Every structure is written in C-alpha cells, then in structure tokens.
Amino acid sequence: MPKLLRKLNFTAALSLVFLVVLIGAAVFSPWVAPHEPMHQNLLVRLQPPAWLDGGTMEHPLGTDNMGRDMLSQLVYGTRVSLLIAFFAVLVSGGIGSVMGLFSGYYGGALENGVMRLVDVQMSLPFILLALILLSVLGPGFVNIVIVLVVTNWIYYARLVRSEVIGLKNHEFVEAAHAVGMSNLRVLFRHISPNLVNSIIVLATLRIASLILLESALSFLGLGVQDIPTWGVMLANGRHYLNNAWWLATFPGLAIFLTVLSINLLGDWLRDVTDPHMQI
C-alpha cells in the first residue's frame, strides 16, 4: 500500500482525498450533520443557501419544500449510498468470482451453463429486471442490495473466467498438479492470488456504477424508504428547478463528484497494477 500511495498522480490524489472526506462524513454523520435530516419546519421551507439573499448559516445549503436541512440530508444520504454500494460489491464480487473461478477452471457443461446465464442476464435491461424483482420483494435497504447483486455478479464471473482460462495452463499450475495437489487447493492457493488485483480494480469501478444505479432506483421511487438518499432528493427537487434550484443541484453534484472520483481512482489503480499498462 505505501508503494501504491507514492505512485499517486494529482487527479488520483485529489479523488482519494475527496473520498476519504466523504467516507468520514458517512461514518460520523450524526456529528457532522447540523440537524436531523428528516426534521420538518415549514416556517423555513425553500430557504436558499447561506450565500444567497434570505439564506442563513443555520442551513448552509438551504432547505427543501418541507423545511428539511439540505446539508443534513446530503450527509445522511452519503451513508446510504456508500453502504448499499459496498455490500452489493462485496456480495456480487464474491458470488461472481467463485462462479467464474470454477467455470473457467473446469470448463465443459459448467462453463457453458454459467456463460449462457450471463448472456441471458446481459440481454435484460437493468430497469426492467429491477422493476420485476422489487415488485416481488418490495423496496428497502436489503432488497436494493439483493437487486444490485443479482444484476452485477455477471461482470466478476466474466472477468475471473477469462483470467482463469489464461492461468490454468501455466507452468506453476502444472507443477502444482505434478506434486499431487487437489484441484481445489490449486484453485484457491495458486490461481486465486493472481486474480486479486483484477478483482479489486473491477470492484472499485463497479462501486461507481452501483451508486448511479441506486440513485436511479431511488429517483424512480424504488429505493430505500423513509431515509434521505441522493436519488430521492434529486427526484423531489426536479419539481422546483425554477424557484429552488439547490434542491436538485446539490444531490446531483454529490452523485457526479463521487462517481467521478471513484472512476478516476479506479483508472489509476488499473494503470499501476496492470503490468501491460506499464510497458
């Protein structure tokens, strides 16, 4: 890790600083947020940000149509978005990596079955599949994670399968078989460690996509209920673009900057860990 940090370029360093601040705000949101995010006060509804006429430092980023503090909602929304993305990446990465590992190593009917399942799922539009699943499961934190896992394991399965196919014929694998190692031991002791960098890079980039997908579902009213999320804030703010632009602008900026930072960091991580990019 120290060696990687020494290779940070300007954009990657800036992205890392932004994400550290964001994660800190999510972890310490009860202390960072100036107000309860869902507390309503109609006396200050649609109050502009502090630097505009009529704004106050009590609500630095203004208030929404119900008088709720925008900054507090953004801070708590950070926690929801990052937690959903983290758990979805963790579970989908684990499931997809295991399926790709076994299908790539054993091949045959197992590989054909997994790849046909991947093809079928990739042919289905994400929103359609999410609507079907959420209509059965209902909205909620756990159900959103399940939907994102179901729709994202395929990326890890394809990547790991292709990597395993390239590795299983290498000399170090043949040597492991020659000394009598079982297939499972070869898979998890000799092949899996060579996949870690690729999986980490993909997971980093997928976190950004999952934040966008969660925001899209929340925007459509299919996200987490009764908790402020960036997508819900964006959906509520679209009705007030003419007279209260900050309602949609700030959650939109939060999504944009977070996704951009994660993508820039993921690109840098891919460049410094991929030997082909260093030639």
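The record above closes out task 2.4. Task 2.5 opens with a second protein, given below.
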Amino acid sequence: MIDAAALAAFAAVLRCGSFEAAAASLGITQSAVSQRVKALEHRMGATLIRRTRPATPTDAGQRLFAHAEAVGLLEMELATDLAGLLPGAETPVRIAVTADSLATFVPHALAVAAEAGFLFDLVIDDQAHAADLLRSGEVAAAITLSSTPVQGCTAVALGSLEYPAVCAPAFFARWFNGRVSAATLAAAPALVFNRKDALPSMWAERAAGARVPLRAHYVASTQGITDAAIAGLGWCLNPVGHLSPHLASGHLVELVPHLRLETPLVWQVPRRYARVLAPLTRALVRAVRDKGA
C-alpha cells in the first residue's frame, strides 16, 4: 500500500515545482514534505523527484505521478457517488490542450467546469502528439487530432479549427510582391510554434503545389505569433477565430484568400474517468458551439 499522505506530498511537489511551495499548499512544514517524499522513495526503492528548480519527476516518478492523478479523479468520482458527503478532492485534473484551442474556446469551457469544483493542470502540446500523453498516462484527458480512440478511451468530436496564412501588409509587399510561390515562401520567414508544428509547412505545400523548405522563427505562443506577425516579423497560421479582429482591422492580410487548413478537434477521455469528467466534456462541446473554434 502507498501511504496517502506521502503520495499527496510527492504530487504536490511536482505540481507546485518545489518542496517549499508544496508545503504551503498542503499547510504543513517543508521538513514534513521532505520526510514524506523520502519515505515514499524508500518504499518504492527509487528516486522519484529530481531536486531541480522547478522539481521534475524521474521516469519512475512520472509513472507514480500519473497514478496520483488517477487517484485524485477516482476520489472525485467517489465524492460524486456519495452526493457530496465527502469533501471534494483538491487534485487538479491534468489535461492536454493545444495552445490554439487555449486561445479560442477552451477557457470558456474550463470556467464552466470550474463551477462544478474542478481545478486544472494544463499541458500545452501539439494536438498530433497529445494522444501519446494520454497513452502514457501523463494526462487524464486530451484534445487530439485523431477520431480513433486511444485504447480504453471514448472520443468526442468537437469540430475543427480553421487556419488562414496571414502577415502584415508591409511584410506581404516586401517578401511576396503580390505573388505567393514556392520561391517566395522559401524566402519569407515563417512564424512557427515549435519544431513539432507542421501546419505552416502543410499550408505552404498546398499553396505552392510542392514541398517548401521554410525559414522559421520559433515562437511558442499563439498570441505571441500573432503579435509578431502584426509587427512584421514573419507570416503565420493561427485559428481564424483568433485572427478575425486583426483581419477586419487590416493589421493582417491573408497570403492566399480562402486557402485555409482545417484540423479536427477530438476530446478523448479514459472510460474510467468519463463520468467524473462529464461536466468538462459537456462544457467543451458547448464552448465550441457557442464561441466557435
């Protein structure tokens, strides 16, 4: 058996980033947190936390952290089953979302679900890789690309995000001179979220009819990419719902009007958590409908 207090202290260190912050969140001394974590490491026969800033899990610690997250969700389900007779769990639900969904409809859904007592620990990753986080147990649910459920999960289609390619008018005049081609796309700097972000290359290939080697600035922020495009640093793809005000104002223009990529959005939840996370699932479906993706 794993000691519940020790498991809670261990998980708090990873959520809060340090032993000191974990102690404050749990209302106990830093020494008590350290003792509980050391006892748990002795019990498990492995180092679980790297004493870095912020604290990070070892491979064994990551597996135990996933277990701690699962225990928290099961406690929430038990509290629901007992009609509120037990105190609500204070364990944040760890979910994988994309930066683009976070910049559009996800905050509205989280705000609604929070009214039911949820806390959230958001992992920001590309939707094409979120399923891997779900398979490994690193998150309790995820927004993914694939409509094929991860083993043991249910998949709920949310809709899709529509991506135009945009830039500032002066940038378009300088780099494209009215003509978007393989040559001009290869020369003009692109703004890319990270090295896993394939959307700009996919759009460029569709626009040019051939693969295009892109020169890129990497900006790991949806809002940051938009701000950089307005400033004239490069061209980018972002969700049309996020870009609409800037297109309407003329601060941004489309490279090729009406040539847009669409990426599906699929919410995947392990079946064992489906009931307790049902309020969040309903809130996400409603947010896409009401706010648009």
